[in-house]
Amino acid sequence: MSIMRSLGDEARPDPGSALRLHLSRWPGYAAAVWGFLFAVPSFVWATGNTFGAQSTVSPSLVRLARDGVPWFLTVLVVTGLLKLVGALVGIGLTRPRGMRISRLLVSCGGGAAILLTWHGGLFVLHGMLVETGVAAVGPDLAALTGWYLYLWGPWFIAGGLTFAGATALYLRHLRQLRHRGDRRRSRLYCAVGALGALVLSVASTVTGIG
Q1: Which of 38, 21, 23 shows the shortest CA–CA distance to 160?
Q2: How many domains does the chain have?
């Protein structure tokens, strides 16, 4: 009887283990939701409908969308698609995949984490400088400072943190399932993606694009 009881205990799933696995996946799902939600405005504005943009986005960008400027509408569609790709990356980071896919996921996840956090941090910093009078902007942009400080900045940072958490947990899962060499290569891919995103963000900031 004791042997049968032991076998039964081993076959019975551990509720605590299942709960921990479920909780460890939430950053990936949060990143996916973030990406899907953020893609919606891009596609809506690409149709020429500027709902929600007139009071929260730079007037020059609103005019480009409202006037249906082809190159700007293309940019909106492409950025919307990239956000959907980010959502798929978030879903991919919820459970271990093959090693090639894993390297791609951690590279994209690390890049998204750096890019979004950096971008959001710039919005918050600039908003704080304007609000405190350290930096000056034109009257049109001054009215938008609060939106970038309290909405867009924190929104980008929240997205960056979800991707960072999802990528970190994914690497931890790889450590438990893969040998050390695979884990090191995955970390290298993550670092390369993060560095590439940082260079891209700095370049866009310096050139004024994005």
Answers
A1: 38
A2: 1
